[in-house]
Amino acid sequence: xxxxxxxxxxxxxxxxxxxxxxxxxxxxxxxxxxxxxxxxxxxxxxxxxxxxxxxxxxxxxxxxxxxxxxxxxxxxxxxxxxxxxxxxxxxxxxxxxxxxxxxxxxxxxxxxxxxxxxxxxxxxxxxxxxxxxxxxxxxxxxxxxxxxxxxxxxxxxxxxxxxxxxxxxxxxxxxxxxxxxxxxxxxxxxxxxxxxxxxxxxxxxxxxxxxxxxxxxxxxxxxxxxxxxxxxxxxxxxxxxxxxxxxxxxxxxxxxxxxxxxxxxxxxxxxxxxxxxxxxxxxxxxxxxxxxxxxxxxxxxxxxxxxxxxxxxxxxxxxxxxxxxxxxxxxxxxxxxxxxxxxxxxxxxxxxxxxxxxxxxxxxxxxxxxxxxxxxxxxxxxxxxxxxxxxxxxxxxxxxxxxxxxxxxxxxxxxxxxxxxxxxxxxxxxxxxxxxxxxxxxxxxxxxxxxxxxxxxxxxxxxxxxxxxxxxxxxxxxxxxxxxxxxxxxxxxxxxxxxxxxxxxxxxxxxxxxxxxxxxxxxxxxxxxxxxxxxxxxxxxxxxxxxxxxxxxxxxxxxxxxxxxxxxxxxxxxxxxxxxxxxxxxxxxxxxxxxxxxxxxxxxxxxxx
Amino acid sequence: xxxxxxxxxxxxxxxxxxxxxxxxxxxxxxxxxxxxxxxxxxxxxxxxxxxxxxxxxxxxxxxxxxxxxxxxxxxxxxxxxxxxxxxxxxxxxxxxxxxxxxxxxxxxxxxxxxxxxxxxxxxxxxxxxxxxxxxxxxxxxxxxxxxxxxxxxxxxxxxxxxxxxxxxxxxxxxxxxxxxxxxxxxxxxxxxxxxxxxxxxxxxxxxxxxxxxxxxxxxxxxxxxxxxxxxxxxxxxxxxxxxxxxxxxxxxxxxxxxxxxxxxxxxxxxxxxxxxxxxxxxxxxxxxxxxxxxxxxxxxxxxxxxxxxxxxxxxxxxxxxxxxxxxxxxxxxxxxxxxxxxxxxxxxxxxxxxxxxxxxxxxxx
Lengths: 609, 365
What we know:
Oligomer: heterodimer
Mean pLDDT of chain B: 90
Largest interface: A-B, 29 and 35 residues
Distance between the termini of chain A: 59 Å
Order of helices and strands of chain A: HHHHHHHHHHHHHHHHHHHHHHHHH
Strand content of chain A: under 5%
Largest sheet of chain B: 6 strands, mixed
Shape of chain A: globular
C-alpha cells in the first residue's frame, strides 16, 4: 500500500521532470507535432493506395457484375498481373520502362562519367566554365529537350505540325526517330547525365593525384592507372548514380508522355496517368505500388552502396595534391567536343523553342512567316484558337503568378521545416525520435509523383475531420509540393546543422540565452548558406513540377507546367514552347538572384541524392 | 553560497557507463580540477554540472538550489543555472563581433543598454582586448580567442566557473602564460571553479583540489600535494608525475627490529609506525626521491646507467638492473655517463606500498 503510493509519487515526479525539460526544448515538441501530421500526410496515402487497390471501385461495376463498391478483392491485381489485359496494362509498359531505364542510365552514366573525368582530372581549357554550365540541364524540366525534339523531328503521322526536318528539308523522319523509345532515351539521357556528372565529379575531387602518380611510378600505363586506380575509387559514386538515374528515369512522366503517348508507347508512369484519367483507380494504384516497391528497393541498394563507400577514405588532411592529367594535342579537340555537346544539350533546345514561337504557321521557316503574334498579339480567332499572345494572356500570367507563389511558398515552408527537422535529427541522434523523423521525412521519396497526386486528389476531395475539402485550392498544391520535397529539404537541413559545432549553441545556453533565441541568433545565421541553397532547389523543383500537379490543378490554380502540357496537347506548339521559355527564364533569374545575394556557389550539390 | 554537490551521479551512453556513481563536494571558492585520461568521464561530469547533459540518476545541487533531480521532478535548464563555461574550442560565435559575442547573453538579462556597454568595455579591458571589440573571431589569434571566451564568461558574472580543457588548443608557450592568467582570474573572482584536463601539470599548478577520474569513477580526491605524494592507487601514481613514478615489485619481511622491504638486493626499512603485515607488495618512489652516488657506499645498490637525458633544468638518468628499471631525476647537469656504474639509495620516508591485487595504497592498520 505504502510502496504503491510511493511509486505513484515518483511517477508523478518523473512526469513533472519530463515536462519541465520539454518546456525548455520546444524543438522536440515541434518535431513530434510535425511527425504526427507528416505521418498522416505520408502513411495515409500509402494505406489509401493499398486499400483502393484491394477493393472494388465504382468504375469496376461496369466490368464485374456482382461487385459491391468497397468490398475486398484481388480483382485489380489479377487484372493487372494475369488478366487478359495484363499485357497492355502491365507487362508492356513495365518492359518499356525497364528498357527506357537501362537505356537512359547507360547513356547518362557514360556521358556523365566521361565529362566528369575530363573536367575534374585533366588540363582541358575552360574547366570552370564547363563545370558551371554542365549542371544547367538539371535546372530545366526534363521534358524541355523532348519539346525541342518534337519541334525538330515530329513527322506529322499522328497529326499536328510536322517538324523542322520535314518542313525545311522535306525529310520525313521514320516513326522510331520521331516518337517512342529512341527519342525518349536520348532526351532523358541528355537530362539525367547531370546526376552521374555531379556524383562522379564529387568523388574525383577527393582523389589525391599522388595515388595516380604512385600507380605510374609502379609502372602502370595511363589507361591501366585509370582502370586499376581511378575507376575503383569512383565505383561507389557510380553505383549511387546508377540507382538514382535508373529509378528517376523509370518513374518520370513528362518526356514519355510527350514522346510516347502519340504512338501509344506506354511506360508505367504514363500508364498510371492513363488509368487514373480513365478513373480506373484500382489499376492505377496497383501500378503505382509497383513503382513504390521499386523505389524502396533502389533506396535500400543505394544505402548499402553509400554505407560501403566509407571504406574508401581518400581525402587526406595533408599533402593533398591534384595534378591534372595532360591531354596533350587532344586538349583543344576535346574542349571543342564538350562545347558541341553543351550546344546540343543546352543551347540548341532553347534556341529551337525560341525560334518556333516566332513562326506564324508552324513549320514554315521563311522570314516572311516570322511574327511576334504569339508573344504580343491580341486575340485573333484565326490563330491559335483565339489565344492571346503570351504577354497579353491573362491565363498565362495567372500561371506565372501561381507557379512563382507555389515555388516561393514551398521553398519557405520546406526550408524552415527542413532546418527544424535537421536540427532535431542531428541533436537527438541515436534516439527513436531522431530515427523516425529522418525516416518519415524521407518516405515521400518512394511515391511516384503521378500516384501521389492521384491519392491527394481522392483524399482531399471531401473534408477530413476539421480539414475542409482542399481540392481546387492553392493550399493543396503547396501541401503536396511540400510533402514531395521533404526528403530533399530535410537532407539539406541535416547537412546544414551537421556543419555547426554543437558547442556554439551550448555556449548560448550557458550564457543564459533561451532555446528559441539561440536558434534564431546562432543556428539560423550559421545555417543560412545551406538553407538558402536548399530553398532554391525546392523553388526550382516546384516550378518545373508537372506530374505531381497535373491531376490536382483546376482552371483557377493552373501553373506554368500544366499550361505547357495543355497547349502541347492541343497542338498549340508556339504557345507551349513560349511558356516553357518563360518558365526557364524564371528559374534562371531565381538562380542568378540567389547566387548574387548569398554567394552560394553550387546549389546542385549532392544533397539532392 | 555556491558550493557544488554531486550526489551519486550516474550517466551512461547507449551501453558504456560514462560516470558511475559519482559523489563530489566542491566547496565555495575552491578551484577543483578533474584530471584523467580521455574517456574517463571528466568532460561528461562537467557537462552534467552545466546542464548540457542529464544524469540518469542522482542529484546536482549548487548552493542551496537543487538543479537536477529526476526523483524529485526538478530540472533547471543550463540557461537558468547562472554558470560560466569555457569550451575547449572556445565556441565563439563566428558571425558576431567580439563585442556582440560578449553582449548577447547580457541582453537576455534585460540589463539597460549603458550597463551592457559598461560591462563589455570593462571585461575587454580586463583581458586587454579593448581595441579588438569590432573584430570577428576568425580575425583573432588562438590566444586572443581564448581571452574573448574568458571575457564573455566573466561579463555574465557567473556564480560557478567551468572550464573544459581550455588550454589544449594553444601552443606550449602560450599555455604556460594562460595558466598564470587563469589562476589569477580565479583569485580575482574567487568563484567556485571546476576545471577539466588530462594534463597533470595544469592540474598540479592550478588547483586547490584535484579529483582523479578513471573509467567513470572517482579514484582520488585530494590536494595536489596529497595526490602527488600519497597516490591512492597505482593508476593515480602512474598518471601523475613526469617522468613516471618508479614501480618496484618486492615483499615485506619482518625482521627483529622492524619490517623491511626487499627487492633484488635492495633492503629498506618500511618506516616507523607503519605495519602492513608481511607478503608481496608493490613499492613506488618518485624519480627525485632517489639519491645517487658515483662512489661505492655501504648499503646502497650498485647499478649500471642505461641512459642520461639532460633537459637543462634537470637530468633524467635511467638505470636497469635485472628486473629493476628506474628513472632518477637530478637537478641541473651531471657528469654521469652511459654505462657508468653508480650507487643509488631510496628515501624510505617517501616510499609508498601498494597491494599487488587491488593496486590500492596500503595504509598501516
